[in-house]
Write a structure and sequence with these properties.
Structural class: alpha+beta
CATH topology of the largest domain: Chloramphenicol Acetyltransferase
CATH architecture of the largest domain: 2-Layer Sandwich
Order of helices and strands: EHHHHHHHEEHEHHEEEEHHHHEEEH
Number of helices: 15
CATH superfamily of the largest domain: Chloramphenicol acetyltransferase-like domain
Shape: elongated
Number of domains: 2
Largest sheet: 6 strands, mixed
Radius of gyration: 28 Å
Strand content: 15-25%
Strand order of the largest sheet: 4-11-10-9-7-8
Helix content: 40-55%
Number of strands: 11
CATH class of the largest domain: Alpha Beta
């Protein structure tokens, strides 16, 4: 499917222009506060405070954060603060004392200019130099809207109300001069992408609508159970241990097989968040809950691995064993998630409910900070749980509505079955059950069936995991 061409821009942190832009924005936010405090006094309405003080200050802080922290790869997010300011500007336009047709004309012209600015920052307009005259026209419009002040004696408090808008546009012009195009030909984040994934933009209408019909992950899950004859698998594990791969076990094989399956079927690396479908592309995130010791009193913790499409069984084994060794060094909870969970757990119950609601809201719009996404076990490609280590059969584990994990795999204990082979002889074979709980909104049933059959075949012939040649596909744009 043909997609629109995008153009990407970046800014360097050491460029003094972006620091001047941040300073201008902060000065503008201070100007909004001063204009309300000095110009309106005690008669200021609550709506005026929210739209001409709180919203601009929030926009200024967000602008500085995005510019200084994420300006290198997400310059397009700078369009959002200007849309936030537009809400307050429209509100203020109705209080200028102009005829209604001038008010409508001003608002329409302002929206058109902001739309063009948004397209430039998001990369759908090629000529970034167009953004400078756009900002100039915007500033001229602000000055023209102040013309009523020219018929009155000079009052600095009145002009102060319009100075912050000019400072914000000055910051925008400075950013325009600081921006540089990225010409490496690779995919870069664009409007609609999240920190942990890029938006899939070529979905069919049924898939798009389905995420709104089934908004919760646990209302859109599909359960799958399968059993695996593990004769060859156990032989493969023994051979690896004999070769010096200490503690190499079933989890290592299953994880390596999943990585190879997700490399061939990249749709398994999709997730749904905010009713939109995303793909992690070159990163496969694996989570698993482990115990420090196999006792009832031993604490649990979560390990999270960053794997890559094309990772071999050896690299998967090394990363997984290193992560397990790190969390078992002490008897205390010591993973990054444990620290965050302990801090959140100190919040009083009523306030904690609000905090969780706020985190869900930020996650819905893709605004959770990267450090939270990094430590969260609720944001991953797949979650494994080993029932075999507990001596019970595989369970159907629920999906989490919080976060975006679209797949939960559980595998159970090994067991023997007396059955008839292809020659009619009675044989004693060993089996292991495993289950999948998947979010059906990310890919269709045929895709899941094809990928799970491939996964099953790999486990029947685990020697294929040692083949360095691996089919690696990329998801549709």
């Amino acid at each position: 499917m043909k997609t629109k061409r995008r153009y990407y821009y970046t800014v360097k942190l050491f460029n003094p222009l972006i620091w001047l832009a941040a300073l201008a924005v902060l000065a503008g936010a201070a100007g909004y506060i001063a204009s309300v405090t000095c110009g309106k006094g005690a008669g200021v309405s609550g709506a005026w405070i929210w739209l001409r003080v709180v919203l601009p200050v929030a926009a200024a802080l967000y602008f500085c954060y995005q510019l200084l922290v994420h300006g290198r790869d997400r310059i397009f997010r700078l369009a959002l603060p200007f849309w936030m300011l537009e809400i307050g500007y429209i509100f203020a336009t109705f209080h200028l004392g102009l005829a209604w047709y001038w008010v409508v004309l001003l608002i329409l012209a302002d929206l058109v200019l902001l739309w063009a600015m948004h397209r430039c920052l998001s990369g759908t307009l090629r000529f970034d130099w167009l953004m400078i005259p756009i900002a100039g026209i915007y500033m001229a419009g602000i000055l023209w809207s102040c013309r009523a002040c020219l018929n009155q004696p000079f009052e600095w408090k009145t002009w102060l109300a319009f100075l912050p808008d000019l400072l914000f546009m000055l910051a925008y012009i400075l950013v325009c001069f600081a921006m540089k195009p990225v010409l490496d030909g690779k995919y870069h984040p664009q409007w609609g992408d999240r920190f942990d994934g890029r938006k899939v933009r070529s979905l069919n209408p049924i898939t798009v609508v389905g995420s709104y019909i089934m908004p919760e992950r646990n209302g859109a899950n599909v359960l799958f159970r399968d059993k695996l004859e593990i004769t060859e698998l156990e032989r493969y594990i023994r051979a690896k241990r004999d070769a010096g791969w200490t503690d190499f076990g079933m989890t290592d094989v299953l994880l390596a097989a999943f990585v190879r399956t997700a490399s061939k079927y990249p749709g398994l690396n999709r997730f749904l968040s905010g009713q939109k479908i995303y793909n992690r592309d070159d990163e496969i995130l694996f989570c698993m809950t482990v115990k420090k010791e196999l006792t009832v009193e031993a604490p649990d913790t979560v390990i999270k691995l960053h794997l890559k499409p094309g990772d071999t069984v050896e690299s998967v084994y090394e990363k997984f064993r290193s992560a397990v060794a790190d969390v078992r060094k002490t008897s205390d909870l010591d993973s990054n998630f444990d620290g965050v969970a302990a801090a959140v757990g100190m919040i009083p119950g009523v306030l904690l409910k609000f905090v969780i609601w706020l985190l869900k809201l930020l996650d819905y719009f893709g605004l959770l900070p990267r450090f939270l996404l990094e430590v969260s076990p609720f944001h991953a490609t797949v979650y494994f749980t080993s029932m075999g280590s507990l001596g019970i059969n595989a369970v159907y584990h629920h999906l989490y509505n919080f976060g975006n994990v679209p797949m939960f795999m559980a595998f159970g204990k090994k067991y023997r079955v007396v059955e008839e082979d292809s020659d009619g002889k009675i044989v004693n074979r060993r089996y292991m059950d495993y289950t999948f709980n998947v979010d059906e909104r990310t890919v269709d049933g045929f895709y899941y069936a094809s990928s799970i059959k491939f996964f099953h075949k790999l486990l029947l012939h685990p020697e294929k995991l040692d083949d360095p040649e691996m089919e690696i596909n990329h998801d549709i744009p």
